[in-house]
Known about the structure:
- By secondary structure, the protein is of the alpha/beta class.
- It has a domain at 23-247: TIM Barrel (Alpha-Beta Barrel), CATH 3.20.20.70.
- The chain contains eleven helices and ten strands.
- The chain has helices at residues 14-20, 57-69, 97-109, 141-158, 172-182, 203-208, 228-241, 255-264, 275-286, 292-305, 316-323; strands at 30-37, 44-45, 53-55, 74-80, 114-119, 162-165, 189-196, 245-249, 269-272, 310-312.
- An eight-stranded parallel beta barrel has the order 1-4-5-6-7-8-9-10, surrounded by eight helices.
- It binds ligand PBG.
Amino acid sequence: MSLPIRPRRLRSTPAMRRLVTDVHLRPSDLVLPVFVREGLDEPQPIRTLPGVVQHSRASLVATAKEAVAAGLGGIMLFGVPTERDALGSGADDPDGILNVALADVRDAVGDDLVVMADLCLDEFTDHGHCGVLDAAGRVDNDRTLERYASMALAQARAGAHLLGPSGMMDGQIGHLRTVLDQAGRDDVSLLAYAVKYASAFYGPFREAVDSQLTGDRRTYQQDPAANVSEALREVRLDLDEGADLVMVKPGLPYLDVLRAVADVADVPVASYQVSGEYAMVEFAAQAGAIDRDRVALESLLALRRAGAQVILTYWALEAARGWLG
Ligand code: PBG
């Protein structure tokens, strides 16, 4: 047959395929999300997230050192307190679990790893919402911003290099930037959860942080069925307000949105491969349905192809140690 054009030629050997590969992931592109729980002596497994634990302060420090050794880009801390109240008082208490753990980690790793803090009230409130409630039980945007500002200063003092406000309140990036700058903390970076959907893929995370939420977050997180222009508007606002990076979350179910954001953002774009995405692969692999490592790597490459420069993934350590070649 006369077929002058044969795309298979470029797939003919491993060396040929390697030569023409244009999607690369390095350990430094990956960020490990971690949970630290107040009062634990030993790390505790999370039933819905096989292989992920709630850390004790000591096991978290050990993991942060492993993250440095593996060459990861960063570590993102979530705190799980023993006491909760309506205002989420543990969040900005310097002795609160998240802030003491941030200080532990920063002490251990210095500037060798970007130390990141989840900035949200949901782990600390007794109602489980990401903000404080008004008399009618609605999440009060502007009073929540005041709480976030206090939290930001506490996290900056504890040693976080970068704060990740994940509550989807209007104006959160601009308010935090102003408050940090006024406090002389223009050195602290902001990773905007610019686009965050009210996703059922967060299911396992709710167990990981012992969430107290009964309703849903649809008045602040975005509607999965909503238009992409809403996502682009959120990104534009966060960029105008001074975001250093912008994130799209979840990852795999929103690759179209990630691509659209990556096409317009002139800051690094991050993607959060969330707990449900991870758990689906882990449980399918446990059932013998898929090859876990290959599926996991394929999912990370998909996020990169769609435009993610930075990827938050519970597989960060494992990927950095083995899968990236
Ligand atoms: C809120 C927050 C959530 C996640 C990260 N930050 C849960 C939510 O918005 O309900 C989910 C992460 C995951 O599922 O891995 N602070």
